[in-house]
Amino acid sequence: MLSFVTKNLNDIIYLALLLSSVAIGPYYRSLKSIETKKWVGSWLGILLILIVSGYNAIHPILSAVLGILAIKLVTVKYCHIVSFFFMFGYLFFFRLANKFGLPLPSGQTNLIEMILVLRIVGVAFEINGSWLAMKKAKKKENELDNSKDAEMIQKDDEFLELINPSLLDLFHYSFNYVGLLTGPYYRYRTFDDYFHLPYSKYADCMGFTINTLKTVPLYISLYLALSNLWPLEYVLSEDHNNRSFIYRMLYPWALFTAFRQRIYSGMTLAESVCTSAGLGAYPVEGQNRTGHGPTVGYMKIKKMTDEEAKIAQYDFNTVESMDVWGCETVVTLRDSMKVWNKAVQYWVAMVVYKRFPIKPLKIHAALFVSVIWHGIHAGYFFCIYFCPFYLMAEDIYYKLYYKPATGLKKNIIGFIMWFLRSHSESYQAAAFLLLTFDRIWIYYSSMYHYWYGVWFTFLVLGLILNQIYGRPKRLQVEEEKKLESKNK
Hints:
Blueprint: H1 2-7, H2 9-29, H3 34-53, H4 58-73, H5 79-95, H6 107-140, H7 146-154, H8 167-175, H9 188-196, H10 199-202, H11 205-213, H12 216-229, H13 238-241, H14 245-277, E1 282-283, H15 298-302, H16 306-311, E2 314-315, H17 324-329, H18 333-339, H19 342-353, H20 362-374, H21 378-384, H22 387-402, H23 407-434, H24 437-446, H25 450-487
Antiparallel strand pairs: 1-2
GO molecular function, one term: acyltransferase activity
Subcellular location: Membrane
Protein name: Lysophospholipid acyltransferase 7
């Protein structure tokens, strides 16, 4: 027992801090004064940083303060670019601290630094994006016809009002304890709404928290059991290499299953910190999306009276990080990427994918930023940056066979695609967990790098099949559309 505690001491402390943050939530939510609430949240956040990081707390605190100052000192036109390069530059320095004669910070401090990067860069892009949107809206104010007005009512634009927080508000947003340890990422708009809108008073925060927490013991138990039965280091041993190829091929399934349970437990606890504090509660009529918040009728919801707020139905979709059932059951890798760590996916889409100026390189820019945000190890590149190559093949088979299929045939094809998707993720996750190039090369060499050969074969075969069967189908669809237009 003692050896187990010693071995997992950092994780136990981190788990205790997350549970403490959940317990604090109802008391924090009950604070009446907005200013008191902001300061208490910030001091709790700084206290968490000090407990987790010790002397290394200087890194997250210093980088956040300098990032905030950069946002306020640089013109709104360029503040997002300056904050992006500064925060990621500091992240590199932080992770290479030992090269500069400084102690290397712990993995838990690294997680806090990663969250601060998301918050500070994210709010800078919100400030710039809202400024651009308001500037554009003024130019087109008199040009919008009724049909466009109707369309805008159906779905909100990304920015509906100017976002321009003060220096102090940026400080509070950066250091608030809710979501600081493991996430999830939420916009500054969500943070500001939490203090000025009444939703957290009327949402069933404890009901949502209990419902979210009830699966955590299962995730932790599965993680402990699987990681002990199938340890990571075993894949580098001679004993592993002497096993049958089928055993070695399926071993990453156990590794990735254990890893998923660890992520599920951490993300679920992080969501519970938000729900217990009431942050991220919005009326369901807003069709709320992870990271973003309400996507429909935000300005109307914002004007909701206390009486209306009392009888409204609420959800916490805004701070939902993981769709666990989706992660386990979706058929394609493309869909799996959408339900995994959804808050970070939203940040990457908002900050990188949508704003990157060169269209053909958008996906590569998004993946590259995702890789360097996770870390500088080769394993992140092997795991994340190879996804598009699998997606190229997967998309072909999905359109040719899965999409048009029905009934039992669709179920069988769906199972095959699910198995291949799961196996691909497990193979890539092995690199993510092994981290360094030498360890990855040892393991992949013991497997003859077989999965890359399978990918390439699937892709080439898919391209051939698409030429044979896909082109006639496209021509048939085009002909049908032409006939429909003529009949009309």
